[in-house]
Specification:
about 15% strand, about 40% helix, alpha/beta, 3 domains
Amino acid sequence: MLQQIIDRRLAGKNKSIGNRERFLRRYKEQIRDAVKRAVDGRGIRDIERGEEVRIPKKDVSEPVFHHGQGGIREVVHPGNKEYVRGDRIERPKGGGGGGSGKGQASDSGEGDDDFTFALTKEEFMQVFFEDLALPHLIRTQLAETPEWKSQRAGFTADGTPNNLHVVRSMRGAIGRRIAIGSGSRRELRELEEQLILLKRQRDPTDAVKEREILDVEEKIEALRSRLARIPYLDPIDLRFRNRIKVPVPTSKAVMFCLMDVSGSMDEARKDLAKRFFILLYLFLTRHYEKIDLVFIRHHTQAQEVDEENFFHARETGGTVVSSALVLMEEIIRARYSPSEWNIYGAQASDGDNWHHDSGRCRELLADKLLPLCRYFAYVQVAEEEQNLWEEYAQLADGHKHFAMRKATEASQIYPVFRDLFKKEGAAAAA
């Protein structure tokens, strides 16, 4: 009997979305391993594109419906010319077929074709973030660290005395006095002209004329008194400089990646550092149009390199961390003016450093780099606290845009990152 299952649930244009989700859940481990291999061989700038995942065919098994053992079944084989009712059909001899070439067949062995599955950009990022303990893709918006600057915005009638604009206030006072006294001054001029005319025609014996002159003089005196009572400077004349806060322009940013490549930094620790740098890069791409990446590796000496050498080169010998900080400052001065670029620094190390150099690192950060950076994060990919950690700890309290954390396994990277870049409001609420 033919069995058929019909899915009557409504679906969008992608009719196979349910099957796709079930496939992702069923082969979660293989897909996670494929994404990890892709991250290891992929540059930071390319992290957001999709990926083709190859799964061995032997690992792919789809559920099927079939008849159970036992029972009596009647089967009609079309085109049968060899058997009649009651004959027993022998099972085929040999193993499963496996193609070995064009037009050829094999009677044994197993096919080696892999199953290729294309992950979308969103699915790739979901698996990547899941390894970093980020729940469900990017369900929580990565935090901002906004910065504001004060900008002039005209004048206002209220403000503090130190913001008083004297010239603007006096200009307003003069205009007010002219507007208020214009009618009285016009009337005063007319009365003064009338008084001059009356005095020319004055006759001391004419009492009426004398009385008229006295009336005009009284009116003139009253008008002059009224004009004198107009205040020279009234509170409504005062004008204060107005300033508003506007976001700092976020068109360009540069991300400095500093990492120790001495013998103590093995591939596992470099992988932790790379995951942190990737998260920081993804965070910056949400807020800046143009992002430059600068890779500085160091052992006893620092060097600016490309991404390939940054993550895969390995040196032997000691560690002098200050050499990387000095080179970072030189590059900023030469190519990235703080007035035009938003500067971020991320440093990864196992904490090992030449003992006498750690104090100099703290001084370089405090005096040279932190005044130029919007944010500087130090991640130690080892548990043991050494002298570099102790020196950096002295900076954490006095500089809000400097932070330091530890991460010793991949699942800790995202919680560390989220803690470093959480919103100021969330930090205050906590």
